[in-house]
Amino acid sequence: MTYVITLANLKGGAGKTTTAVNLAAGLARQRLRTLLVDADPQANATLHLSINPDEIECSLSTVLQRDARMDAAVCSLHDNLDVLPASIDLDPLEYRLVTDPAAALLFQRQLRDTPHDVVVIDTRPSIGFLTSSALLAADLVLIPLPPEYFAANSFLRTIDRLTEMADAAGRAPTTRVVFTMLDRRGRFHAKTQRELQPVVDARGSPLDLRAFATVIRTNTDLKRAAAFGVDIFRFAPNSRGAADYGELTHELTETAGF
Ligand SMILES: Nc1ncnc2c1ncn2[C@@H]1O[C@H](COP(=O)(O)OP(=O)(O)OP(=O)(O)O)[C@@H](O)[C@H]1O
Ligand SMILES: [Mg+2]
Question: I need a labelling partner for 14 at 20 to 30 A (CA). Which of 45, 55, 144, 184 fits?
Answer without folding.
Answer: 55
